[in-house]
Design goal:
Strand 1 (118-119) and strand 2 form a beta hairpin. This protein has one domain. The protein contains seven helices and two strands; from the N terminus they run H-H-H-H-H-E-E-H-H. A two-stranded antiparallel sheet has the order 1-2. The model is unreliable at 115-131 (pLDDT under 50). By secondary structure, it is mostly helical. Helix content is 78%, strand content 2%. This is Peroxisomal biogenesis factor 11. Its main location: membrane.
Length: 190
């Protein structure tokens, strides 16, 4: 590969990464709104609530810190603290993904046990329809898929922070797998 082509491909990669940051620019608002809702609801009353609260908090902090470096990434206003702030942002990204994986595993292992089997103090005597198991299977498979996606995404901050240098092939492969798994859901919503 020629050096000119390598420079062009690197430029394309950097511009695409910058474009993705534009779409995430206001992501902290959604994260902090979910965090606020959890604090008003059951954020501290269950393990699942605490894991979700920690995840939303870390994602919100990641988005805010990443937003602080947008002008630097665009080449508009260079700052000396860009590297330190991005390291902290990536650390919060790692923690958010780790809390998401832990929450997904918790929901798979304990989720059904946390749901009450009684309503209004009476046992639920309704007949279980034939459609109930597929619904549970769908919820469980969605959780497993999210665990796999978040686990794949964990490699990115681990590589960026130098905590687990895996190389471009591993990071690229996990990014492709994560993208393919989430693309299904995105196209379904469209």
């Amino acid at each position: 590969m020629s050096s000119t082509l390598a420079v062009q491909l690197t430029t394309v990669k950097l511009q695409l990464a910058l474009a993705r940051r534009y779409f995430r620019f206001f992501g902290f608002i959604d994260s902090f709104q979910r965090m606020s809702a959890l604090l008003g609801k059951d954020g501290f009353s269950s393990v699942a609530g605490m894991l979700e609260l920690a995840k939303c908090t870390c994602f919100g902090l990641y988005f805010v810190l990443e937003d602080l470096t947008t002008l630097h990434a665009m080449g508009v206003y260079a700052v000396s603290w860009n590297g330190r702030v991005m390291d902290q942002a990536n650390t919060f990204w790692f923690y958010a993904l780790a809390f998401s994986v832990a929450g997904g595993i918790w929901a798979l292992l304990v989720g059904s046990a946390e749901q009450p089997s009684k309503k209004n103090g009476k046992k639920n005597n309704q007949k279980i329809s034939e459609k109930a198991p597929p619904a549970k299977a769908t919820v469980a498979s969605a959780r497993v898929k999210q665990i796999v996606v978040d686990s794949c995404d964990l490699f990115i901050p681990l590589e960026l922070l130098g905590w687990m240098p895996t190389g471009d092939v591993v990071v690229g492969s996990t990014m492709v797998l994560s993208t393919l798994l989430t693309a299904q859901d995105i196209w379904t919503r469209v």
